[in-house]
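Appendix B. Extra example for self-study. Work through it before the problem class; the solution is given directly after the inputs so you can check yourself.
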Amino acid sequence: MIDHELLWTRFKEGDADAFGLIFRTFYQDMYNYGSRFTKNTELIKDCLQDLFLTLWKNRETINNTASVKNYLLKSVRRKLNKKINNNKLSIYFNESSFDAGFNIVLPVENNLILQEQLTELTYKVRNVVERLSKRQQEIIYLRFYMDMDVEQIAEIMTLNRQSVYNLMYDALKQFKSLAGPDYFSIPFSVFLLIGFSIRL
Amino acid sequence: MERQFNSIEDLVFNKSFREWILNNESSNAVYWEKWVLENPDKKEILNHSKAIMYALSVNHNKLSEEEISTEINKILQKLDNTTDTIPVETFYGDKNIIPIKQFFLQRRLWVGAAAILLIFFLSLYTIFYRHNNKMGNSAYYELPDGSNSTASIERVNNSDSVQQVNLSEGSKVSLFPRSKLTFSEDSAGSKREVYLTGQAFFQVAKNPLKPFFVFTKNMVTKVLGTSFLIRAYDNDKAASVEVRTGKVSVYKKENFTDSNIRSKRLDGIIVTPNQKMVYDFKSDQLTKTIIEKPVLLEPAVQNNFVFDGTPVKDVFKLLEDAYGIRIMYDDDLLSSCSLTATFGSEGFYDKISLICKAINASYEIIDGNIFITSKGCK
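Solution. Structure tokens for the complete assembly:
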């Protein structure tokens, strides 16, 4: 494992090698997250170039950060949204263009009955997820694909912790009203909740 | 790998499980199929986990190593104007340089005359060559500031052995076979710019106030005073710059601007001793790596590699200093590792491999640095 905080400290001291390594370590994740906001890959790459250049210029005044990845994802989100909003009419200002792009993969099982069961389950989860708001989907995306906890998600999305919880609780309620007292709702809500370690 | 998976969360946040389900990663399949068989009671958790993964799968466009490298190099080149100044080393002349006048006086007159004639014809040739070049993509370039009016001297090595070329401002160039060096020579030695096709080893006289430039087909190498080897044959697939002493900076030709010429410091991508910059023509990439056989910066330190329960961090520090190659590792993880060993004439990579073996670690080369991966020592 690469010690990210060590790299960060060296980068702040002006070490271009450490800077290059930070870039290499997080580039794919930042690119992935960026690609949730726009399909324009050149825009994402430009944005990341800008972001790293600004980082380098401001390296002496940047705070130490508890999580480098967290800090970088937050910067991607802010910078990219700003760029996208600049190209839009002002009426859309502040509107996040996040699209998790969840696409369903159909299960392949040797056992046909199991395959059908799984397909049904998958569509149920899918139905719920589709009805979630952009922000709720973004929370799930960050939790799932960027391995972020509530605290970190709140920071990246510039929300407070309570808002993240509320959004998730809201998602859970939506799910329950859709699925009814289905046996499946229990494990799925457990997934959402344990994932965020909150007790209701 | 005896782990308990008791909840959906345990499964969906397990990387190996995810790869098995979503990417059909067969290397994990044996483990998970066994797990499924041994845990029939976890069937429901398993199915729900699978459903969640199927429903939440996303397409991520996996960037290739090359794509990421391109982006990194782009940014490193952009750091130009923000990079810290490299400390300027003290100036000293090289006593072994023969001034150009003496060089000619040592030879008979007719040799001198022949040389002048040769230079005359070579200049003519160069002028035509350059002229043609504007259409084609040959190895010759205009001086970036447009001052190609100065008569230039061209040295071509068609022999089988390395030829020595002494420049009037004090630098020495060892020109390899099938190579060509072009430079302008004036009494003041004010121009420190040469043009190279092929391979040459440079020992550049130190002059911090006047950087020395080597132009090759695709690269520009800028130095203050150092020794290094450039290989840039027209027919090769790649060109390279290997540094022996000091520091040099390398630019892609297309990114090289007037301000790079004027600035008194090293910008661009900096290459230090035992590092090598490779320019791959096909992928249009500049990549920094470590040379095949790193040498000790000062051969005298060879005897100092005796370790007896020495903290491995100190060992790495010693190697870093001896070879001038950065070794990066996790401070905390390696804090409890120590090494007892004696090294003789092993090469650099052998030493690193032996140490890694001893502390149960592995290494890779990233951007011309050594990166140690370890789980730590008990």
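Self-check: Residues 4-92 of chain A form a domain with the Rna Polymerase Sigma Factor; Chain: A fold (CATH 1.10.1740.10). If your reasoning did not lead you there, revisit section 3.
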